[in-house]
Amino acid sequence: MLGYQANAQWRDMSDFVVHFTKPGPPYHDAYQNMMSILGARTLIPGAEGFGIARREAVVADRHRSVCFSEIPLDQLGRLVQRRSLYGIAFRKSFILSQGGGPVWYVQYGSPAHLAMKHQLDQALAAKEPHKEPVWAVTPFVDIQGDAHNAPYSYRFDWEREWRVPGLLRFTEYDVAALFLPEEVHTLARDFFAWAVRERAGPGYFCPVLDPGWKAEQIMEALAKHPHAPVVAERKSVQG
User: Fold this and answer.
1) Are 122 and 55 in contact (CB under 8 A)?
2) Residue 125 burial by Cβ neighbours in a 10 Å radius (0-12, 13-18, 19+)
3) How much is the pTM?
4) What number is the average pLDDT over the span 41-68?
5) Cβ contacts of 198 within 8 Å, gap of 6 or more
6) CA 18 to mean position of chain CA atoms
């Protein structure tokens, strides 16, 4: 289950992406925010957009995106320190089906950067700039540079980011795994069982992992996951 496209030895790659929740509105606790997202089956982008054209007023709203990382599931330590211990993992194939994809990190002042800037200038000068096709690309393009290239001096390509512009709606069957501290795994599982039993909300019975676990622990948890009953249940729910 770790590795990439059935290649178990490709441990620098992953078939999954993870979205980490953070403390903040509507709750001040990352766990509660995560459970709220799972209950609503929706990831909502923040107020701030992403991408090379995020500050262009005519298309700024189209750059509000939900963000993920494709860092392998057993190597999330640095990202956890920057985000939180609470994450929702999806297969890349699902994210691609929802219009998402990987971010392209372009060097400041490079020919690629200058070409993109030229395309943006042309689009903004068009009669109906909001209809220009380049805006389908710009949420996925970030400019980064060196210390003297302000405001692009921070290199964030290590985050290996993916994005979905706009809302991401999903079902409990689309979630590949949940990341929570091990001490709340039982609490989360019991809550989902209660939610299904009482018809109070969706139940997530995918693997529950701790982002601090070693690769062997993650692989063991993934191997124990009973896929067949979940697939059968989904088919019966869909009729």
Assistant:
1) no
2) exposed
3) 0.89
4) 95
5) none
6) 5
